[in-house]
Predict the 3D structure of the following.
Amino acid sequence: MSDHEQEFSLKNLFVPLTTFKAIHIIVILGFIVFGNMLFNGFVWDDKTYIIFNTDIHSLDFLKLLGKNLFNAGGQYRPIPAIYFATLYSIFKETPFFYHLFQLILHITNASMVFILFKRFINARLSLFLALVFLVHPIQVESVSYIAASVNPLFFLFGISALLLSLKETIYPKRLIMIFTLLFLSLLTKEAGILFFWLIFLSVTILKKRLKSREVITFIIIGFITIVVYFLIRFSIGGIYFMSLPYHPIARLSLGERLLNIPAIIFYYVRTFFFPVQLAIDQEWTIKNLNFQTFYSPLLIDCSVFLLLGLLGFFLFQKHSMKLKPYLFFVLWFLAGLGMYAQIFPLDATVADRWFYFPLVGLLGLLGLFIQSFKFSNEKIRALGLVVGLIIIIVLSFRTIVRNANWSNAISLYSHDRQIHDNFDIENNLGTEYAAINEYRHAIEHQTRSITMFANEANLYNLANIYERMGNKSTAEKYYTEALNAKNYLPINHSHFAVTYVRLAYLLYLKSDFNKAKIVAKRGLLDYPDNGYLSIELAASEYKLGNYQSALAAVEKARTLSLNEQINSIYLQIKNKQTVDVKL
């Protein structure tokens, strides 16, 4: 083969740039950039939602639609519950396959973003924008964090519906498919409601032949879909709306949260253009209205929105055909920001995974802006190609490095606490060290967490560490503090069941039977069906000489769970023998 023929064949790989070729580029680059995260373990809430969550360890669809860990705390997300239950039934606790499917979801979304952009922007620029969506470091939390699979999953359903709605003709079958996909998006994450907004915009703004009947049909069916969703959410899931006071931003009033909006928007804009400092679990709030925390972010935000307005005016003056796509993408971007601006309090102040949706709106606006300039000079085009390539390479390397931070929980927490430290990261880090019996480090981080914000969770964890070390007196002290502390977590109880259980047990071991009885009774008021508390109450009553009360309590324990230990204690009390309780 001659040099000329080889050059021609290499050129043919990219010119013309077909959708088929673009998707192959997206797939290859996606696996290259995120390849190292495939070998990461379970971190952060991955363990809570998958390993320790027995609700998803069997494919019980009725249970997955009803109350479980995914459908709690004001959230109703049965599709992720079914998704993880399916993966668990096949792959159990092998994180590689969870990462693999999550990466496939993200690559598929990036391909669909390319197809969407290609309707309004030229193919080369659309590919560049889709690659930025694919490899941007702000996406790591949505791709490397298994528990965040809900983001690419809800987006996949939503953008599929959006692309169908952009078809010139909407047949009844296509209409049914659109709203089925929207319904699935909403059952995956509450943010799926944003795609209803985009579908409405696509029909009213982007359609060339706008028919009022079509708009009315979309509105009616959309309304019915949302009503059905809430009926299922309230009746089957039993999930309403609730605050999350465990998080500092949720403990603020609406007015106080509004003062945080400039800093929140600035965080996302800054991270998009300069993705250097990336950290999970950001719980900061703005308390003082000074230049650095309020006025400076407000000034920068206003400048960004002013530039967006000037872009719209420029397109109206010079490229009127691009005005409708501009309105579509600017409203996409603003809706995405508004969803996470803390008007309704969320479980963190900011989170990189929340930018998954608004990122597309911002990229669409940048694409329209770049395309508005006609670059006819070949040297300028070549320069643009080189700059674009450098941007993709830099973003890719940053993402690869960030993926490495997620290799294990200790690595992630240790890295991110240097960027943004808070009580929750310190609590999580202490728990991880305790799991590997590194008690000195565990106590250090749990103590720091309590200093920052004492709550039942970190007090219980510190008490449990001391109990495992054999220091029962100190453990009792912190269990008592935990039981007297406010529980900010979204559970329908005053305290954790284990807090009552462990404290009552330690009091029983030190022969303080009256206090053990009081704690066990208090726990049973909170958890009437807890067998462990019934055993502790029975044993304490027995030691205090209250035989009938002891027998009644242990008989109740037998009705709750008939196992060897409970049966043994029942026989000991019934036969008035020495009771041996080990919990």
User: Anything to note?
Assistant: Residues 36 and 403 are 7 Å apart (CA to CA).
